């Protein structure tokens, strides 16, 4: 049987804090893609160095260096994984800022498949996911719909190691793996492979 072509996935985290649970979801996704999913290469793309969007920073069609670096990274992938914490019932400002930079000039999100996962309080970040889908619609991102993954980070049993944000709950890990498998299948379908 022919092996699956490798798909490249850029993983963006909406939280900048060191012990972020959402960053922990991305670390776990990278590990799962390396250990138990054939044909998927997930790479973390840091949004922390990006300045606030300000079109005055765009000079002669060029972006600031950190933005150019970010755009190079997201421009060369087949799909996106967003780990989207919820701040006041929406996606976080840093994630929205990163999405806005990717949309300037050539919209680098266009026609790309994406998955969203989230860890948060009451609804596990579900409302942030809804808002991110709304933003993604105008950018022509194509989100997978199933399976959903909303991790209620503060409920028992413990989902994360609070010291470093590592995902420790086996059921959540399995849920995350199924999200990746679904994203892979959808990406290959969109590419006609
Ligand atoms: C400004 C702010 C607003 C927040 N609002 C919400 C919210 O609306 N819903 C929610 O579930 N959690 C909310 N939280 C709690 C976060 O979900 C929680 O801090 C979570 O751990 C953040 O993700 P992280 O661990 O990846 O940093 C808020 C946290 C902050 C700092």
UniProtKB/TrEMBL annotation:
Gene3D superfamilies: 3.40.50.360. SUPFAM superfamilies: Flavoproteins. It is an enzyme of class 1 (oxidoreductase). It comes from the Eukaryota. Its EC number is 1.6.5.2. One of its GO terms (cellular component) is cytosol. One of its GO terms (molecular function) is NAD(P)H dehydrogenase (quinone) activity. It catalyses: a quinone + NADPH + H(+) = a quinol + NADP(+); a quinone + NADH + H(+) = a quinol + NAD(+). Residues 7-150 form the NADPH-dependent FMN reductase-like domain. This is NAD(P)H dehydrogenase (quinone). It comes from Canna indica.
